[in-house]
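Thread: Newbie trying to understand structure tokens

Hi all, I'm a second-year student working on a class project, and my supervisor (Dr. K.) asked me to get a predicted structure for one chain before our next meeting. I've only ever worked with sequences, so writing a 3D structure as a token string is new to me. If someone could post the tokens and maybe explain what I'm looking at, I'd be very grateful. Here's the chain:
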Amino acid sequence: MGNEKVKTANNSRRAWTPSRLRWAIALLPALLSTPLPAQVSLCTVVEMAQQNSSTVRLADADVKKAQAALAQTQDAYIPNFVIGSQVGYSHGFPTGQPSVGSATMQSLVFSYSQRQYTKAARAGLEAANLNLKDAREQVALEASTTYIELDTVNTELAAARQQESFAADLLRIEEQRAEAGVDSHLDLLQSRLKAAQITLQTRHLETRAATLAKQLAVLTGLPVASILPDHASIPDIPAVTGDQVPRSLPGVDSAGSLARSKQLQAHGDDLAWRRPQIGFGAVYNYDSNELNSYSTYYNHFTPNNVSFGIQVSVPFFDFSLRAKAKVSAAEALRAKVEAEQAQRQNDVQIATLAGSLRELDAQAEIASLKQQIADEQLKSVLAQMELGNGASTGANAQPQLTPKAEQLARIDERQDFEDALDAGFDLSKARLNLLRALGHMGDWLSELGQKQP
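---
Reply by user tm_fold:
Sure, no problem. This is what the structure looks like when written as tokens:
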């Protein structure tokens, strides 16, 4: 025994010749660069889709813009500080103040309009945050639907390939029966047609799976060949109905907040030409008489000069501000109408989805019952093939089932199984869309995160 082991080991070492080793080293980079399919959970796909989505990034940029706009309205009360210098030569009567260095400071002290602008900026920030949440939910819905569909199609594809195998067996049996004169040439053609139809269906499913995988790759940024759904990572979708009271939807709430922001902006613009405002200002100048004849024309020249005070502005006739207020009022009215339209559209969508959901629920139940019946029929055929039909040999005796009947039963069972999967996916897709329309998408996404391994 020991000698045999040593001989085997030596043979295995001799098998790795230098030429084979060079080939293995040459193929290693290609093998490492080829992405291997690996199961990716639904939670991971949703998170990567949200990070990779341009819609989400644009909404996030709007949030940052709204934050900056709010800071701008609040910072109007903080005094600014500007340092400058105006150095130049003058001859004769001085045309300006001989300032070598200057520092200015000014700020807003009180304004009726600015208070409305700050409130409008806060409402705008709220609208931007809600819009970001709505964008993330929309991307999560798209990614989840595509992921679940790809998982369903992969299962259907496996069943279709089983059908192809059964169809090949059926065609082989039919050819033998036709050669033996048991079946006609028409029966053989029908078997070939069924095999061709199953092949076409398999190709359709392969194309559909490749398209869905590409869509997920575009959504997530993952290589298309590395995406393999994990069925265990998909949480159950609750059986919601349109009778449930809808929660606030981020998209609708965002439109409402934006309308409120426009209304506050319009109110501030209206107050701008009706109410006074108070500002503060201070100036320091360091003057020099070296490059001009300022002291020749002005007595009591001093290099250090400071001035500060309060400025009160009371608008009497400013048609420009009045026109701006009218523009803002029109924009506010438009935003209000758009918010109401968004609410109505969501209500219509809920009613439409609720009606479709009832039909899809019935279709899914029918498809499931058909699949169960086909499964029972297949079991019955297999039992009769093994034990016989159990009938007598008289005139009313049932004919003994043939292998052809077995393959036909297997093909029908797989087809009903695929139909049940399709109906189940359509039902799941409708439920997810209704969840989002009712404002419950966040709850399902939370449950999705809990299923993350």
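A couple of things are worth pointing out once you decode it. The first strand starts at residue 38 and ends at 40. Strands lie at 38-40, 80-84, 99-111, 227-229, 277-287, 304-313. Feel free to ask follow-ups in this thread.
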